[in-house]
Amino acid sequence: MTEVFVSTDDVKVIGGTANVNVEVDFGPQGDRGNLFLVGYGDPNAINHSTEVQALDIYINIDTTDEKYLMIYQLQNVNDTTQWEEVSKLTTDKYSTTRDVAFLNGVSVDSEDFKVSNIIPASLFSTISESRFNIQCTFSNPTKPVANSIVVKPITTEPVSGDIVLPVSINAAEFSGSSWSALNGTHKVHFLITVV
Predict the structure, then answer these.
(1) Which run of H or E residues covers position 187?
(2) Do 95 and 190 form a contact (C-beta atoms < 8 A)?
(3) CA 148 to CA 128: how far, in whole Å?
(4) Residue spans per domain, the chain
(5) 3-class DSSP state for residue 26?
(6) Does the predicted model carry a pTM greater than 0.70?
(7) 58 near 38, Cβ under 8 Å?
(8) Tens digit of pLDDT for each residue in 47-103?
(9) In this predicted model, what pLDDT tens digit does every residue of 161-193 receive, in sequence order?
(10) Of the candidates 138, 135, 146, which has an alpha carbon nearest to the alpha carbon of residue 175?
């Protein structure tokens, strides 16, 4: 333990300044936007009933529009205020875990993923199976597993009417010094993104 010994006849306490001057006068002058608005379609084509100002936010909630869930911000561009796209609320990602049965290295049944779980219904007609990136990993395998995914054309299920993305998996496991076709039921994690 450190010991400190102070021997003096007087103690001076030094404090901060009596005045603090904060400069906040840089950047454009005027009020800042703080409204979050929602509406149907492109905000530049809508007559807004509320008074909007620069930096207000607008979210398109028209499910039939290809810009569905797009976030816009009102910005000053070339001395004109207009709504500019900022980002989209949808992530275009989907993940799930399923028990998949394999026979001779091929999944017994096709794994069908509802497309509505991945993208908004309004985009169904504009997207094909080639736009989906599907990755899978096996949960706690006892041996190393190699796999490949076969993505089939998007179809409509006859009973439910759901639009699905069917996928089959080819897999093999490494045992000792050779690879053999995977058999049995295994827990598989899927990650699907749109590219």
Answers:
(1) strand 184-194
(2) yes
(3) 20
(4) 36-88, 93-194
(5) coil
(6) no
(7) yes
(8) 877 788 888 999 998 877 778 788 999 998 888 889 999 988 876 788 999 999 999
(9) 889 999 999 999 998 899 999 999 999 999 999
(10) 146
